[in-house]
């Protein structure tokens, strides 16, 4: 049936709602060409979009960008539209251009859409794996905020995320990409230059965050694919155990950045870190977790009184660690074994001292159960290599087969 259409004379005229055009909206809404509710100090649109509301001024003259609210609710990765992505990229690049240490060797970092995708993975996937369960939310929020303010940390964040990608995509991981090496090299160079001058509070926090990420990168970098290619089975080189020496630099960074200071945004993260925490209850008056035959082999009587014994501190630290469950919440406690490692004990490791290797094998084996992506392959391969080395060269140690049973069982051949 045809639709009936009333004659023009019978139609009621449509009334247009009266309105007044306001020119009092914020600069961001004008730039985005959307209606502003003019709420102050932050309009609803800017609050939801995560940018600084700029009443009384336009966006940065000549830039055509929005200024990201670094302390606001905005999170990279939650982008409402392609146009929003463009605006956020502009805001981040504008912030990075304000870095004072840019020169011909360190030109301006210009992020791309691909970089923004990498940063999304950095914030929501990579940073939670590098903190304990208690500090994940803080580190996830503050690491990305600091990266948006300091190009050296931005480079390091991009590099460590690309390294994480490699470890997730293939087993064994493929060699680092050009992009990963570029970001880690540039980030390290700018990081070292930043350390040469006086540091602001924000720079000190960014320095500590960069140091933590670079440490994870060093732990993750292992070329061996089978135990026979891993330390201590391979021919000695000057690069042996350099990944442990990284923690010497980390101790110096702690002194410079002091993330436990009152104005540090990473203070809560630092308070449960390996330099201040050591391990719960450290030092323990007795050794209760290491097997009795290991304690006797090391010349320890189970007490913490023999200060001249080079195995005392690492054995006590390891004993604390063995009492814990290997999980994300105890990652920093496990790393305390490396942070608190005395130089004389490290020298024993470099000399492939069998007793030092036994303690190292126990640490590798127990930590491997956390399956932390940046350390797991090293733990498995080098633990297997240590066990093979001790079996070949120190089979005459009384009870060595029983002593190595724990490490061999947790890091059995074929798990890599």
UniProtKB/TrEMBL annotation:
Annotated GO molecular function terms are:
DNA-binding transcription activator activity, RNA polymerase II-specific; zinc ion binding
Provide the residue span(s) of the region labelled Disordered.
Answer: 1-22
Q: Which PROSITE patterns match?
A: ZN2_CY6_FUNGAL_1, ZN2_CY6_FUNGAL_2
What keywords tag this UniProt record? Nucleus
Bias type Basic residues, positions: 12-22
Task: Decide whether keyword Nucleus is in the record.
Answer: yes
- Zn(2)-C6 fungal-type domain spans which residues? 25-55
Q: Does the keyword Secreted apply?
A: no
What PANTHER family does the record tag this protein with?
STEROL UPTAKE CONTROL PROTEIN 2 (PTHR47784), ZN(II)2CYS6 TRANSCRIPTION FACTOR (EUROFUNG) (PTHR47784:SF9)
Q: What is this protein called?
A: Zn(2)-C6 fungal-type domain-containing protein
- Organism source for this protein? Clonostachys solani
């Amino acid at each position: 049936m045809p639709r009936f259409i009333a004659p023009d004379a019978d139609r009621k005229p449509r009334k247009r709602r009266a309105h007044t055009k306001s020119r009092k909206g914020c600069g961001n809404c004008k730039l985005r060409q959307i209606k502003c509710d003019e709420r102050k100090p932050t309009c609803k649109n800017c609050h939801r979009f995560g940018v600084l509301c700029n009443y009384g001024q336009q966006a940065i003259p000549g830039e055509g960008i929005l200024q990201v609210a670094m302390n606001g609710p905005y999170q990279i990765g939650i982008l409402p539209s392609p146009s929003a992505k463009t605006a956020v990229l502009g805001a981040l690049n504008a912030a990075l251009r304000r870095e004072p240490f840019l020169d011909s060797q360190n030109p301006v970092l210009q992020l791309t859409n691909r970089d923004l995708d990498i940063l999304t993975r950095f914030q929501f996937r990579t940073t939670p794996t590098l903190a304990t369960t208690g500090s994940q939310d803080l580190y996830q929020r503050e690491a990305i905020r600091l990266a948006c303010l300091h190009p050296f940390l931005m480079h390091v964040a991009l590099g460590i995320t690309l390294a994480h990608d490699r470890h997730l995509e293939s087993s064994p991981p493929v060699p680092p990409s050009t992009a990963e090496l570029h970001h880690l090299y540039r980030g390290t160079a700018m990081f070292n230059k930043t350390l040469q001058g006086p540091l602001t509070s924000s720079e000190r926090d960014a320095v500590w965050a960069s140091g933590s990420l670079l440490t994870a990168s060093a732990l993750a970098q292992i070329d061996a694919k089978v135990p026979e290619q891993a330390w201590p089975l391979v021919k000695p080189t000057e690069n042996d155990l350099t990944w442990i020496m990284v923690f010497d630099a980390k101790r110096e960074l702690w002194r410079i950045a002091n993330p436990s200071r009152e104005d540090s945004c990473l203070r809560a993260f630092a308070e449960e870190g390996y330099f201040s925490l050591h391990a719960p209850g450290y030092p323990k008056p007795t050794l209760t977790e290491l097997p009795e035959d290991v304690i006797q082999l090391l010349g320890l009587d189970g007490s913490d009184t023999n200060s001249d014994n080079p195995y005392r501190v690492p054995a006590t630290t390891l004993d604390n660690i063995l009492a814990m469950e290997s999980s994300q919440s105890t990652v920093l406690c496990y790393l305390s074994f490396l942070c608190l490692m005395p130089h004389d004990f490290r020298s024993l490791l470099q000399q492939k001292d069998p007793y030092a290797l036994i303690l190292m094998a126990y640490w590798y084996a127990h930590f491997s159960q956390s399956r932390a992506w940046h350390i797991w392959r090293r733990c498995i391969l080098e633990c297997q290599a240590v066990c093979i080395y001790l079996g070949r060269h120190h089979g005459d140690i009384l009870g060595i087969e029983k002593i190595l049973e724990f490490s061999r069982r947790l890091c059995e051949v074929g798990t890599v």
